[in-house]
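worker-03 picked up job from queue 'complexes'. Input manifest follows; two sequence lines, order preserved.
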Amino acid sequence: MILLRLFWEFFKTGLFAVGGGMATLPFLYDMAEKTGWFTAAQLADMIAVSESTPGPIGVNMATYVGFHTAGIPGAVIATLGLITPEIIIILIIARVLQKFRQNKTVDAAFYGLRPCSVGLIAAAGLLVVKVAMFCFDKYEQSGVFIDLFNWKALILAAVLLILTRWVKPLKKLHPIFFILGSALIGVVFSF
Amino acid sequence: MKKLLQLFLAFARVGVMTFGGGYAMIPILEREIVDRHGWASNEELMDYYAVGQCTPGVIAVNTATFIGYKVAGTVGGIAATLGVVFPSLVIITVIAGVLTHFADIPQVKSAFAAIRVCVCVLIFNAVLKLWKGAVKDKGALVLFLLVFGLSIFLDISPVFYVLFCALAGILLTRWGVRSK
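worker-03 finished. Artifact:
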């Protein structure tokens, strides 16, 4: 029964992949090898699509692998398998947290956790900056310093920064407008 | 029942507008959950990210479950979670069924290269905002710099940073370093 197996494989992935969407990758490669449902090359394609579509990447990949393996029911079952363990775990934590949130020690722990969250987010953001605005490959090949920068991207970033931070009526716009606007600019100026 | 539908739809909106995974969702969550619905504060969102870093699963899903639970209990948590994954199910199924080489289309590549730039700027803005709520004294500043610096240069699981900072928070408070 392939659906049951699919649920179980993704249940395990959801249970053991700690630290967000990309942490599911090693489990998926393992799955490719063990089940033969898809090859590693197909998985690479699925990752590319998951990164180029809206939605959390981990969920996108589960849906894709499920669909590839057993059609629409497979997509639904794999996604449900992935999210079931985390729903259970988070509901338990949320309940405990609600009870102990006023506790002094818990409050002190969160005093340390908040700068930690911001630090992790900032570091993750920097990784995106590296991919989006610099061309390390090109620089290594040519050795020309100016090749290190993706000029189109840097100009777009500067414009967006000004629009989102200092231009009053635009500052309040929903982020999705900036995202869609950027997509359009990307296509028109072939980024 | 109305609340559950609201949760499902609000998180479906978040799911559809999240381009580029996990952290790209932060500006969207702030707008939809904090500003629009008032279901959580920015500080609470940070607490959820921190917990989400050391619990299994996709962070977007963890955050959805947390907020759904806070708003409407266990069923709320389930409704919000199903909401955040729903758009993925539809979009990926359509793309996987129709376009086999979606990610290779030059226009798609260009659009996403530019979206990544936009996501950088949006995350930068979000970090500045979160920073104000999180780094209010010297102890918090040291923890921020430590986590930020180390996670750039070292490849350690975030779980360790989270555990370390929770412990540090308790100790710094006990030693009176934390400003009142």
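worker-03 released lock.
Chain B is about 80% helix and 0% strand.
Chain B has two domains: 2-133, 135-180.
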